[in-house]
Structures are given as structure tokens and as C-alpha cells.
Amino acid sequence: MNAPSLAFNSRILIAEDEPGIADTLQYVLRSDGFSPVWCPTAQEAIAQFSREAPALAILDVGLPDLNGFELFKRLQALPGGAAVPMIFLTARSDEIDRVVGLELGADDYIAKPFSPRELVARVRTVLRRSARAVVSPSAAPPAPMASSAPQPFLLDGERRQIRYYGRALELSRYEYGLLCLFVQRPGRVYTRDELLEMVWDDPGDSFDRTVDAHIKTLRAKLKAIAPEVEPIRTLRGTGYALNEELPATP
Ligand code: CA
To answer: How far is ligand 1, taken at its centre, from the CA of residue 166, in Å?
Structure first.
């Protein structure tokens, strides 16, 4: 067992029941300097993850004991789980699977059959993005928070947490990245391209609807706290902005 350290965590958890695919994954990841850990069942993945959180997890949607989406939720609920980026491996290039995965807050998905080189590139991209999502929003000055007007949003960059009307939001990495941007500059209109550019690290791999899917889940979480308030404005054909005039109480 590795001692906790600041060294690069190269551990990649793979939950995949097909040995052939698992072998390929392990091989390409290992040759790229990662330390893959293969788990053929969801139960084993949960046990491994609890023992030591990986840098990233690759989850097959079709596992024998638990489907990948359910496994994702269980892993997210483990201590430190929400901070680990996760990629779904889908058997079909099925739109439903993609949307469900992204709406759950997964970082990416890869459709089988995949090219090993592409897989490693995606893993690297997701790891880079998640490092940036941790660093950049907290590094920006929380200027609007210093204003004297009562603010429904409270940003705690160090804890990567945003409170909304006093309640802590449970946000995925991208929801957090998006909301961080909005909250720091209320009223500023961001185009989808800008959001992809600023919150995602490799916009070439993503699409406008990726932004829309994350905005949708973010809105649902905000609505659950304040059903009457719509803090994120959609500007048709342009993009999104934080509403500058929000009520002081929900
Ligand atoms: Ca499978």
C-alpha cells in the first residue's frame, strides 16, 4: 500500500467484466505510465476504491452485478469519491447512455469499440481538466462576494464548495466550474464556446450540448433549493449568464 504523498497518483480503476477489453485497457494505460487496477465486478470496484481512491475511474455501463451508472453513484458517495473523475465505457454508442452518463456528472464516455490511443488521450484530458477545475476557480478573486448586497451565492474556493441561500450545493466538477464562472461575474454573458473553452480543457472533444446538459443538471439542483428563483439566464442563440438581480431570500 502506498503511503499518502503529494506524488502523482497514477492509479486508474477499471470496472469491466470482459477480460479482453480489460487487458487492452490495462496494457495501453500501463504503457502510458499509469497503474491500472482491474476489477471485473462492481463489488470489487467499490472495495478497491474504498481501500485507495484512484486518480480516475473507468466504469463499464454493463457490469454483471450492478450497472455502471449505479456503481458511479456508489463510488461518488464514498469518502473523496466526488473528487475522482470518472469515464463511462458504453457498449453502444447509444445517445441515452451518453446523456444519462453526462447528466449524472460523469466526465466523459467512450463508446466500444474504442481505439486504445484515443482512450489514453481521453484519460489524460480528463485528468488535466479536473486538475484545472480544482485550481483555477479558487485562484480567481471572489470579487462579487465582497459586495455589501446580500448574495444568495457564497463561494468557498478552498473547499470547492458553493452555498446557495445558505445550503451547500452538491455539484459535479463541471457544474462547479460553470457556476464558479457565473458567480464571479454576474451578468456577464458566456457563449457555449467560451464555457467549453474555460471550463473544459479540451473543447475539441466536446459539443455545445455537453454544456447544455450540465447547465440543465445545475439548474435542477438550484431549483431544488429555491423553486421560484431562476439564477441562470439563457440568452437564445448566445449563451448563459447569471441573473444579476436575485432575491435575497428564496
Ligand atoms: Ca460489460
So the answer is: 42
